[in-house]
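Support reply, case 0932

Customer input (verbatim):
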Amino acid sequence: MKWAVLGHAGMLGQDFMSALASRDVSGFDRAEFDITNAESVNSTISGFDVVVNCAAWTAVDDAEVKEPAALAINGTGPKNVAEACKQTGAKLIHISTDYVFSGDATSPYAEDALVGPKSAYGRTKLAGEIAVRETLPNDHYLVRTAWLYGEHGSNFIKAMINLEKTKDKISVVDDQLGQPTWTKDLVAQIVSMVENKVPAGTYHGTSSGQTSWFGLTQKIYELIGVDPSRVLPTTTDAFPRPAPRPAYSVLGHDKWSKVGMSPIRNWDEALGAAFVDGAFSAS
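Our regenerated output:
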């Protein structure tokens, strides 16, 4: 089985490349292909059995003022990839996001819950979901994830570790709930679902459990051996951003049991494992 990872230089893409190192895998990024160009996509993924699309516009706030550019990457891009996979018979794994939901729920969003993005980023990612489903109804795995962190690239965990070094106290938002998810766990889940040949469809690739950014930061402080009381709770209103942030980003995982798989482990267990694994350090 030949794998292609689109966006292989990103945080998630690099973990895919590591996890698939013992298999037949090739990585591609902006230097090798243009996801907005159908011809470029076609020539890139020809000959592969599984295509993992990690390529995306992820600058949430910038998308508010550059929505057409974000749509080209997050909407037209996945359509091009899906069309190319349709021609070759390849399976497509497409990574999506919790931002396709409104964020107003009070219980976990099911895989088939009503969507309703409130940001430009969410709208562009939803466009990509629709294109993938319509083009490859029986040959796609659409995996929504959220609050990702990993060894590579910048992320919230690294930012909080760095802030601890320079600030005695730190205020962190406590009115947004979600599921911090280690990229290494997500990759392992996706590789397993492909190799177990679970049915095509939409899955939620987030850790189990839930917390706030405040709760997550307290846990980070515990893991690096500093007093978590130095983390103070605050509200979203204290940090105004161009794009609205979902107040509730908790995704449900019922579909995993239906296909004979367990969901990803609890977020705090995974975070502890990430530190043990060497993804982060206090230094």
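We compared this against your earlier run and they match. Two observations from our side: The domain at 2-155+180-209+250-267 is CATH 3.40.50.720 (Rossmann fold). The chain has one domain: 2-155+180-209+250-267. Please reopen the case if you see a mismatch on your end.
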